Every structure is written in C-alpha cells, then in structure tokens.
C-alpha cells in the first residue's frame, strides 16, 4: 500500500485492533518514507449471491424465499420446522460452495427437489409440479412413479396382494 501523502513509501503495520467478531480490523500504519501515520480499516465485503432466472434477469439470493418455498411444499405434511431449517442450511451450503457469484434457478430448483425427495414424497411432488410445470397428467404420473420404486399396496405383511376385478361378460 502506497502512502497517500508522499506517494513514495510503503506502509508498515505498527498496531492492529479488532472488534468483537474479528472484523472490522483497524491497523495503525507508518510510512517508510515520510514517517506519517494513519489508521486503516479492513472489512470483509461479502459479494451477494445472484440468482440468474430463466429470462436472464438477476435477483439477489434470499434465504427467506428458499425457506418459504420449502414450507409451502410441506404444508399440512409431517415435516418439522427443524428439518426445513436443516434443508435450507444444506442447500445454502451447497450453493455457496460452488464458488460462483451467480447461480441459475435450475441449480437451486434441483437442490430443493433433491432435499424434498428425502424429506417427504408428497412435498416433492407438490414442488416438482410447480417447478417443472407439468404439461399433462402423464408427465406428473411419471414423476410420481420415479419417487417410489416399489408400488404401494394395501396388504398386511404375510398376506397375498389383492387382485383387481375385471368386468368380463361372456
């Protein structure tokens, strides 16, 4: 760092002081050339995460919006709020670990669907139906079949599955 007064010397750090959380850090510096002293303040400037929408507009990432979308999908489902918070934390950690300042909505949507699939199958289908904008019932049925690999039946363990009756006339 060059001296703002003489523009010649470099500054040497004489003293450092930090606040409660570690930042901002105040440093007392002295110019090697003109011997003037100044205080500098160092802060972390966080670059907000930008969400790139399908129409290429950008919006600032919102943790609250992510939580609300998960909560709406889980409405009237047996998913505790603690699990939703954990899901938001996991998704957020994955987003910030990407190391980019911009994340497409598709990436966020896929992470949300992945988490909802683990939490609750009905919530997953609710979210997927809105997110993927199913064109017809066939697409939705295929998505629901993908959720469960084993078909559900109403039989008790140890009983034979119920057979469907078909109307056949001679």
Fold and architecture overview:
The chain is an alpha+beta fold. The chain folds into 2 domains: 11-42; 50-147. It contains 5 helices and 6 strands. The protein has helices at residues 63-73, 81-97, 105-119, 121-131, 137-147; strands at residues 11-18, 25-31, 37-42, 50-52, 58-60, 102-104. The strands form 2 sheets. It has a 3-stranded antiparallel beta sheet, with no helix packed on it. Helix 1 (63-73) packs across helix 2. The chain starts with 10 loop residues before the first strand and ends in a 23-residue tail after the last helix. The model is unreliable at 150-170 (pLDDT under 50).
Overall, the morphology is elongated
H and E string: EEEEEHHEHHH
Distance between the termini: 97 Å
Residue windows where pLDDT falls under 50 for at least 5 positions: 150-170
What fraction, in percent, of the residue positions are helical? 25-40%
Q: Sheet bearing the most strands, described?
A: 3 strands, antiparallel
Portion in strands:
15-25%
- β-strand number: 6
Mean pLDDT across every amino acid position: 78
Total count of helical runs of at least 4 residues: 5
Q: Top keywords for this entry?
A:
38% helix, 5 helices, single chain, 6 strands, 3-stranded mixed beta sheet, 3-stranded antiparallel beta sheet, 170 residues, elongated, disordered C terminus
């Amino acid at each position: 760092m060059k001296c703002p007064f003489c523009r010649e010397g470099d500054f040497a750090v004489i003293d450092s002081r930090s606040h409660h959380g570690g930042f901002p850090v105040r440093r007392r510096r002295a110019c090697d050339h003109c011997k003037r002293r100044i205080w500098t303040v160092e802060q972390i400037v966080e670059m907000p995460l930008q969400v790139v929408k399908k129409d290429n507009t950008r919006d600032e990432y919102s943790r609250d919006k992510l939580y609300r979308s998960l909560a709406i999908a889980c409405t009237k489902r047996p998913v505790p709020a603690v699990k939703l918070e954990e899901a938001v934390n996991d998704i957020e950690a994955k987003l910030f670990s990407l190391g980019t300042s911009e994340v497409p909505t598709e990436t966020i949507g896929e992470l949300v669907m992945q988490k909802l699939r683990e939490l609750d199958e009905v919530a997953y289908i609710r979210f997927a139906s809105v997110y993927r904008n199913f064109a017809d019932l066939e697409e939705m049925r295929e998505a629901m079949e993908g959720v469960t690999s084993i078909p559900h039946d109403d039989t008790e363990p140890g009983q034979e599955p119920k057979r469907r009756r078909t109307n056949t006339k001679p």
